[in-house]
Amino acid sequence: MHKKSLLALSVAVAAALGLTACSGGSSNAGAGGGDGKTLTLAATTNEKPALDAVVAKFKEQNPGVDVKYTTSALDQYQTTTRTQLSSGTAPDVVFVWPGDGNPMATRVVGKAGFLEDLSSQSWANSFPAGIKPVTQYNGKTYSASVTFSGIGAVYNMTAMTQAGLTPPTTWSGLLQFCSAAKVKGKTAFELGAQTNWVTQLIPYALTPTLVYGPNPNFPQDMTDKKATFSDSKWTDALNKYVEMQKAGCFQANPLGTDYNASLAAVAKGDALSVVQVNSAVAAISTQAPKGTELNMLPVPASDNAADTRMAGAAGSTYGVNAHAKNKDLAIKFVNFLEGPDGMNLYAQTNKALPAVPNDSFKVDPALSTLQQYQKGGKTDAFMDQNWPNARVQQTLFQVVQDLLAGKTDANGALKQMDTAYTSGS
Amino acid sequence: MNRYTWRTFILEAVMVLVGVLFFLPVYILVNLALKTPDDQSSPLSPVTNITFQNFSDAWSQANLGQALLTSAFVTVFSVLIIVAISALAAYPLARVTKRWSKWLFFVFMLGLLLPFQLALIPLYTTIRDLGLLGNPISLVLYYAGLQVPFSVFLYTGFIRAVPLDYEEAAAIDGAGPLRSFFSVIFPLVRPITGTVIILNVLHVWNDFLTPLLYLSGSNQQTVPVALFSFVSQYVSQWNLVFAGLVITIAPILIAYFAMQNTIIKGFASGLKG
Amino acid sequence: MSTADSQSLAVAEAAAPVPPVSRSTRKFTARRIGTVPWWFVVPALVFFLFVVLWPSVQGAAYAFTNWDGLSATKDFVGLAQFERLLKDPGGVGAVVHTLLIAVAITVVQNLIGLLLALGVHSKIKSRNILRVALFTPAVITPVATGYLWKYLMTPDGAINQLLGFFGLGALQHDWLGDADIALWSIVATVVWQFAGYSMVIFLAGLQGVPEDVLEASRIDGAGPFRRFWYVVRPELAPAITINLMLSIIGGLKLFDQVWVMTSGGPGTSTDTMSTLIYKNAFQFGDFSYGIAMALVLTAFVAILSTAQYKLLGKQGGTK
Question: What is the pLDDT of residues A376-396, one digit of tens each?
């Protein structure tokens, strides 16, 4: 009797499983791949519109080839892709972050041996000086940057004109702009500091002018333990952050406002601008009334307008899985992304600039200032791309929130970042 | 049978008020799902020009039709297995007073406590070695094991509360343990079977990370994965997402509504029959 | 499936030899307790071992290495990861937040869940629709309710709008931006979502309350509280134990809502053990350290839930 009932149960289970085998079978054959015809790729959701466009183009140029791409939100992307890489089941092409400081950054993944050496590809040496190092580890190229992105204040120019204001070009001008906006009942800079990565944008916008422009060796000095955050002009940057808050540059509750709400405020014209990455230009314009003019400009940090620099760095970046099932096709796809067709299409769709400046790219007027700064060499890479571990950036998120809540000061905040910087791993 | 007094009326009024309060956020969810993305009115103010565009967009963009099928398949089969093996296992755990039974119960309970991060990578490599990645069967297996502790826990508690008289009567009639389980115990714990089904369906239906991990790279996706994969972190279209959510929770709510009467009636007949 | 099974099993049963009486006489006198065959647990145990227990044991081994979650290499480092834990300043705050969340959720969610269950286990006409309405939040995936409430809790969001509308402007807050109340805002979200969940389990328990006894005690003049305490509560004992266990474990392991609503912020004011585990294992590339934390969390949850289970057991909670 016992055996029979067990048998009944196992028959039921087997029947259940058998049913899926039928429904699952066909697709599985395609995914298992290695047939040289089906490329697999994974990226974060932000890349989806651009991927839709470039994949269609790639398939058009390569008849008979299929590209299966999965996109997931940043947190899930990091978790799943790391798990897949370490288990040897990752897709052929993976989205990676440039440089270091992120668990899926080029140097982290490259160091662990999961990225194909792409040094011999023709584009590997064509990147501008600001981008090339972050695609490399130990002098070898492990990833391909497709876009260049920057951080600046995105102004709603239509609302600015209505308020009779113009974008400031000096630090004191910026503080005056804040009070003038307040008089008009507008927020000068909407701040969505509830979303943790948004907290870093203002320091990133200020430190090129304050720290990295005057001392280009600062990242190296930090690596050599000759400099620390708390002992540098980073203190000025964080103090200026607090000064902006005290001067009423931000809305009443920056810590209760998230990224989306901050963009919505600018789109509506309740706020005149927001310090953001260039992708915000596209996000705001889809929400704003038709005809709203946007412009992304540097955030001044000193009273000499000529000193002003911008944070600009490699944006969307891809690597080829060293254990890819379709390595040739994967390299072909990355080469396509680095070619003029792929790169410009990608940058155009993602509202960014191409990683390799070229004349055939039609720049969005809102990004023309960023392009000028890129061409003029007045940009510095996003700071985290040169930090030795992911803890530093996460600490920055946390201390800025504490700073805005009045729970710490610039020095205390930077001491915590120094601890994170030296915490190894 | 029982009269509807003024006390009942007051209770009714209070409960309706509480119900409305609880439902308010859900109302906002549905309300936003019906609004156009450029509608800047307060989320509380009722929609003025209703659009079903969000629903059809969510349906097609997230490929929800296919996802609903995959989710339904995974949910139905894993919950069937869970109910069968957990109820069966709970019976000796609730009745046998020997030491092994107590220990085994605690071993199962340990499963409730373990954070998912522990098993994540070893289990993933096992599923890979079995060649089940990209196949929904992997999810059925996974949930069948994962939800055992929770379901055994629910069943054991309730079987313990069932008086022994019924089994004794069955035993005197000459029924063996299997028959007294299926003809006496299982019908008696029908309300908790209903609860086990509902709560497990919820978990399986809503789980996100596991299907993302195990089905990635295949054409099949479950509902939450399909839904969230088209939400961009940078360009959020909440009207669309909320519409998608409404579509995906509707089947569960309908099933729950239909089932709760059966569960309650089933119990009554179980006691009398 | 169950009907077909029981039929075929009944047939199988009839054909099976009756176990020799001599072997089970001792147990038979103990009201047949103990004659339920042990192999009933085997199918569940097999699935459980394969999916949960064995992989967890394998995974726990990472806590004694320095694996980053990616590299092909890892070294055995003994208890070094646990020693780091002792010196981690973020850890203490996370433990305190985790405890606060777990206690608050356990108490409030179950109290509300019980009241709701009693309310809809009555003669009111709207009981069926209310059972669905009150349960609806539990059906929505926690990630989505997190987003929904984050949206409602913005400074000019629906909650503050409603408070303003009813002239309660003084109660308006920056619900998630204020470090002093963000934790409680998250608790409120969780309670809202899962009170209906507790209600469903209580309802299942209430089905066992004998109507005639209740009616008799009513006629005897017992008030509603006496009726609840002496007639309803004993029947609810398993439901109470289960609900308390589930909410205490759920509270201690809470992750989705915290992650979506605040990611542990502002600052570290809502960091819990689960968010710290996640950050270390997957964001800092410090996988082994995250696993070490997860093991500590397991021990933590085990101690607290066992204590609570024993406590209830003494009260006759599980009979």
Answer: 989 999 999 999 988 899 899
What residue type is B272 in one-letter code? K
Q: Is B229–A80 a contact, with Cβ atoms under 8 angstroms apart?
A: no
Q: Please count the structural domains in chain A.
A: 2
> Which chains border A (3 or more CB–CB pairs < 8 Å)?
B, C
Residues B129 and B207 both lie in one domain: yes
Chain C interface mutation, best of B2, B11, B15, highest count of C Cβ atoms under 10 Å: B15
B193 falls within a domain = yes
Q: How far is A166 from chain B (nearest CA, A)?
A: 27
Q: Does A34 touch chain B (CB under 8 A)?
A: no
Shared-domain flag, residues A250 and A377: yes
Per-residue pLDDT, C7: 36
Q: Hey, what domains does chain C have and what are their CATH numbers?
A: 20-64 (no CATH), 81-314 (1.10.3720.10)
The confidence band for C314, taking pLDDT boundaries of 50, 70 and 90, is low
Same domain as B122, residue B166 = yes
Q: What is the ipTM of this complex?
A: 0.86
Look at chain B and report how many structural domains it folds into.
2
Note every long-range contact of B60-63, with CB atoms under 8 Å and residues 24 or more positions apart, other chains counting: B61/B230, B61/B240, B62/B226, B62/B227, B62/B229, B62/B230, B62/B244, B63/B221, B63/B226
**pLDDT score of A20 more than 80:** no
pLDDT digits (tens, 9 = 90+) for C215-258: 888 888 888 888 888 888 888 888 898 899 889 888 988 988 99
Average pLDDT over residues A102-121: 92
CA distances for B240 relative to A260, A285, B38, angstroms: 15, 18, 12
Using pLDDT thresholds of 50, 70 and 90, give the confidence band for residue A228. very high
The range of the structural domain enclosing residue B164 comes to 63-272
Instruction: Give the CATH number of the domain where residue A101 resides.
Output: 3.40.190.10
Query: Choosing among A67, A89, A349, which should be mutated to test the B contact, i.e. which has the most B CBs within 10 A?
Result: A89
Same domain, B172 and B114: yes
From chain C, the residues in CB contact with A9 under 8 A are 43
Residue C9 has pLDDT above 80, yes or no: no
B15/C130 touch (CB, cutoff 8 Å), yes or no: yes
For C205-230, b where at least 16 C-beta lie within 10 A, e where not — what string? bbbbbeeeebeebeeeebeeeebbee
Domain coverage including residue A330: 35-146+315-356
Residue B57 lies in a domain: no
Q: Of A304, A327, A356, which one is at a domain's C-terminal end? A: A356
Q: Given CA atoms B195, B198, B204, B207 in this order, what sign does their dihedral have?
A: negative
B92 shares a domain with B27 = no
- A75 vs B: CB within 8 A: no
- Domain presence at residue B94: yes
Element (H, E) at C105: helix C89-120
Residues A166 and A255 in one domain: yes
Q: Does C266 touch chain A (CB under 8 A)?
A: yes
On whether residue B56 sits in a domain, the answer given is no
CA neighbours closer than 13 Å in the CB half-sphere of residue A387: 25
Cβ atoms of residues B25 and C137 within 8 Å: yes
**A25 in any annotated domain:** no
**Residue A321 DSSP SS3:** strand
Q: Which of A131-135, A184-188, B180-184, C67-71 has the highest mean pLDDT?
A: A184-188
Q: Kindly report, residue by residue over A60-79, the tens digit of the pLDDT.
A: 999 999 998 888 878 788 88
Is a pLDDT exceeding 70 seen at residue C148?
yes
Q: Is A290 on the interface with B (CB under 8 A)?
A: no
Same domain, A214 and A251: yes
Report CA dihedral (B145, B151, B153, B155) to the nearest 10 degrees: -140
pLDDT at position A35: 65
Q: Are B205 and B128 in the same domain? A: yes
Q: Which of B134, B137, B234 is opposite residue A21, by nearest beta carbon?
A: B137
Residues of chain C contacting B100 with CB distance shorter than 8 Å: 38
B124 with B43, same domain: the answer is: no
Subunit contact A103:C16, Cβ cutoff 8 A = no
Nearest to B59 by CA among B184, B262, B202, B230: B230
**Can you list the residues of chain B whose pLDDT is less than 70?**
1-2, 217, 229-236, 262-273
CA distance A253 to chain C (A): 7
The C residues from 147 to 186 touching B (CB cutoff 8 Å) are 147-149, 151-152, 157-158, 161-162
